[in-house]
Amino acid sequence: MKGFAILACLVSGACWAQSPADFQPATTNVWGAEYPRVDRLGSVQIRIKAPDATKVRLNFWSGPKVDLAKQADGFWIATVGPLVPGLHYYTVIVDGAEVSDPSSQAFFGGGKYASAVEVPEAGSTYYLPGDVPHGQVREVWYHSKVTASWRHALVYLPSDYDQSSRTRYPVLYLQHGAGEDETGWIRQGHANFILDNLIAAHQAKPMIMVMAYGYARRAGAPPVDFMGKPLGSPEALVAMQDMASVFEADMTQALIPFIDTTFRTLPDRDHRAMAGLSMGGMQTFQVTFNHLDLFSYIGGFSGASSFVLGDRKFDPKTDLHGALADPKVFASKVHLLWLGVGTTEPERIRGGLLRLHASFDAAGIKHVFYESPGTDHEWQTWRRDLRDFVPRLF
Amino acid sequence: MKGFAILACLVSGACWAQSPADFQPATTNVWGAEYPRVDRLGSVQIRIKAPDATKVRLNFWSGPKVDLAKQADGFWIATVGPLVPGLHYYTVIVDGAEVSDPSSQAFFGGGKYASAVEVPEAGSTYYLPGDVPHGQVREVWYHSKVTASWRHALVYLPSDYDQSSRTRYPVLYLQHGAGEDETGWIRQGHANFILDNLIAAHQAKPMIMVMAYGYARRAGAPPVDFMGKPLGSPEALVAMQDMASVFEADMTQALIPFIDTTFRTLPDRDHRAMAGLSMGGMQTFQVTFNHLDLFSYIGGFSGASSFVLGDRKFDPKTDLHGALADPKVFASKVHLLWLGVGTTEPERIRGGLLRLHASFDAAGIKHVFYESPGTDHEWQTWRRDLRDFVPRLF
Predict the structure, then answer these.
(1) What is the average pLDDT value for chain B, to the nearest integer?
(2) Whole-prediction pTM value?
(3) Chain A contact for B148 (CB, 8 A cutoff)
(4) Does the interface predicted TM-score (ipTM) exceed 0.90?
């Protein structure tokens, strides 16, 4: 809600008059679609065809629901904003059916293919395709004995990977959030362009980046319906942790060996990092602190250990296997411990990260704490996180 | 319509009783979604939550629209089929709003992210991930002076590409249909698995496969709204051809040079093929016959030259620059001319392909004509096309 600042003026009158010539189709639209449209200030117009509907609502996930107004031609329309820059998920609710907008590209979020509108950030080009060498993103399939299935992952390779046939690279494992999938960091996050630009500017080392599918269930086990449970509820958290432990097994027993045999990696802990957003941050803490023999760089983007979401205070002496009990020993072993959160994220998440940050400070644990100004539990926060995190690696 | 054979029994009664224990969630569902469900015979159940709607219809694109029945819990449900095996696009129409089903994965088709349900084909594993080496699919970005933009393409590399650092490979350019995009052949078609399996069985040579985004407009030109025109209308055809000529320029001036400098290709006409489905078949004929210096293998899957859709009879003496005027000269130059169509495709398309096939026969033009039994203008036809086409290459 905060940071979203909806002016929620239902079309026809005031909002159109404000800057009528300025609206442009969003870059997140499908080919040829004129709506959604965005103006220079970040106001957004959404239009849906639903001639026989009695009520159509717009549901921006980081803002309030807004009624659309019916026009004579069977289209429903609303103008919201200005919205903060970034990619904003939304759905439309047509007579009670929550669906995506056919004019928008579909992005996997919230456990389904949702719509999203990109509001440009004036002057920010770090996540756009620049006139620099572009790394490729490879789709790979690896077989996992843990899940007894073929699993799909995306792998970013720096642009010089194919030119230098002997060079070996460090690896960043980067995880999506709950309800998203392995495509999120590329399609929503533009992580490949962020790395392209940082590497071209010599602000980051060339590296391999692996984005895996963060859901896993053991062969023969029933599906885990963690998305069906109330987000943030104890039941959802337990289900998420159960799944994270299967993912941990898949990652350490199947994915990492596959990556290290398939690509020219530097296959040791000094050259292996893991980070993730939201649920992916939780998974990162679980995987890395259970396997400090494998990782030496750790990042939590709007998510860290599961106790971030609980009331319990972090205890460095016992939590995370006591790895943080001696800050000097920890700092000599783990090269980077990084936390980030947006300043307008929900209190439940922001409070948890702030408390963890304070606990780390109080215990003298070396870490980086980054706050993304004005952004919510959304992709603009995580793009900025990645931009800050990656230059500190390797 | 033909080949779809809808039993269209609206739930609750007869259909459920028929084989109630047999329904399984479709492989095309999002994680954890129990609907759509498919039974062994290919019957499909679709369920949508729309508590306040007054009418919900199901629109399988290769079949009739079917009303869903409202249940007490706010869900609407219908059972259709049995459907022929393959991937069937569909949308749902909620009080006049045509939208995708949140329980299905989204596949780009019809100019939007549509839903689809996969009906397995008993005994067919050629398009499934097998226990064989898997080629990678790379996402690449190339800059095009034709469009003055960064363009995205997918590139399949055979599984041994990285092991044999000197081997060079032939290249198949494979295009999607109108309303689809460069992701279609992988996500809907499983083209990578088809090649993996054929190559592992030594039925096809290891090759590179390039799937490009088939829409293009010249830098500064207005967008071409070919999807807004009635499909198959003269206006749509003209718009499609205009766009194809820009795509032709992009492909020959930007894409092919990019591929040949980026990957270890055999960069000559003897080792370069092009095929495409529907609109992609039309583009294939346009590009290859304008550039026989670049291509020697040509495939039209449910689409070929634009006159397939018109009434005009093909004239080998003058059409396609007269390249087919002398069948012997043509056969010595072009190693493969391949046409395919499903037996239950709409008359407009099927008739056109049959007429072209007859014209080729009458003129003594060597070619392959393949008919996919029982399948419509849908992906199962094109998967079979690819399986027949690829072993004949290189």
Answers:
(1) 91
(2) 0.90
(3) no
(4) no
